[in-house]
Amino acid sequence: MKVKVRLWIQIFFFALIGAISVNHTLVEAGGGLVLFSNASLHALCPFGGVVTLYNLATLGTFIQKIHISSVILMVIIFSLAIMAGPVFCSHVCPLGSFQEWIGKLGRKLFKKRYNHFIPMKVHAVLKYFRYVVLALVVYVTAKSGYLMFADIDPYNALFSFWSDEVSIKGLIILGITAVASLFVERPWCKYACPYGALLGLSNKIRIFKIRREASTCISCNQCNVACPMNIEVASKSVITDVQCISCMACTSEEKCPIPRTVTLTIAPVHQNSN
Q1: 8 Å CB contact between 194 and 133
Q2: What pLDDT score was predicted for residue 43?
Q3: What is the pLDDT of residues 141-182, one digit of tens each?
Q4: 222's torsion region: left (phi>0), alpha (psi -120 to 50) or beta?
Q5: In terms of Cα–Cα distance, which of 211, 218, 225 is closest to 265?
Q6: Residue 235: CA atoms inside 13 Å, Cβ hemisphere, count?
Q7: Average pLDDT of each block of 10 consecutive residues along the chain (274 residues)?
Q8: What phi and psi, each to the nearest 5 degrees, are found at residue 262?
Q9: Dihedral angle at the C-alpha atoms of 32, 38, 40, 43, nearest 10 degrees?
Q10: 3-class DSSP state for residue 146?
Q11: Closest C-alpha among 19, 42, 36, 49 to residue 156
Q12: Beta bridge pairs of residue 90
């Protein structure tokens, strides 16, 4: 049931962002709904809120093209992350959903091989590259006062590929991301997304955590197979990995065959049952 709920949430936000983006283009051409003419991808980009606050704190100015709505979205998403981790990544982000849907085709093509083309030792190193991207984006943007990430952002390219606002670099990265999604689940999220990198840190302090009850675990490793981010859930008691996106795919409600073994809780299951 939760899988279907998450899917409908993903479809809703994908359609919403798509409709807003198309309307923005139509308004510029003299049509569309004027009521929503000010809504744009820049206004709906929570990552813009991060860099514009940094710029405001250091230089006293806002980032070009960033709206106050980005800051508001950032506060809401950060609050959710402190409660239950990066739910934005797994439930809301249209680019994440786009990769996930392409991945369904990849899973049909490659079966069990899908999402396991990259050796775990290589993955263990690559997964930190998105922090390099995060540091670079914040530094360059703070220096220039312009959100340089917008030019290479596949999210921006996905919802503006038909307009003259999109850059060639963004389209190239979007194309690479789409093709890579046939082999690796959520490749952009895993290895390059600066916002996902930032939200991933919330897994260390989040209130509701994904926990595995060792006393009832049968070591079937179904949780490991289900995890799109290649986290070895079966070897952990609490999932604090910065890669976790709170998709709940590994839990007893979805994949784990034993009830109350992998769950989203405040305290361990054996403490809750006392």
Answers
A1: yes
A2: 57
A3: 666 656 667 778 898 889 888 877 788 998 999 999 999 999
A4: alpha
A5: 211
A6: 6
A7: 81 90 74 57 58 51 55 82 94 95 96 94 95 86 65 86 83 96 97 92 95 94 95 95 95 93 80 43
A8: -115, 110
A9: -160
A10: strand
A11: 42
A12: none
Sign (positive or negative) of CA dihedral 120, 121, 122, 125 = positive
Q: What is the pTM of this model?
A: 0.84
Rg (CA), the chain: 19
The letter for the amino acid at 165 is: E
**Degrees (nearest 5) of the Cα angle 108, 109, 113?**
95
Query: Are 22 and 38 within 8 A, CB to CB?
Result: no
The answer to whether the beta carbons of residues 71 and 49 sit under 8 Å apart is yes
Which residues does 20 contact at the CB level (< 8 Å), separation at least 6? 36, 39, 40, 41, 44
Residue 64: what pLDDT? 47
Residue 196 makes CB contacts below 8 A (sequence gap 6+) with: 86, 89, 130, 189, 245
Q: CA–CA separation, 48 vs 23, rounded Å?
A: 21
- CA-CA distances (angstroms) from residue 38 to 69, 98, 162, 164, 197? 11, 25, 19, 18, 29
Give the domain ranges of the chain.
2-202, 208-274
Give 117's contacts (C-beta < 8 A, 6+ positions apart).
183, 184
What tokens does 226 get?
């289900």
Q: Which two structure tokens, joined as six digits, stand for 33?
A: 């709904």
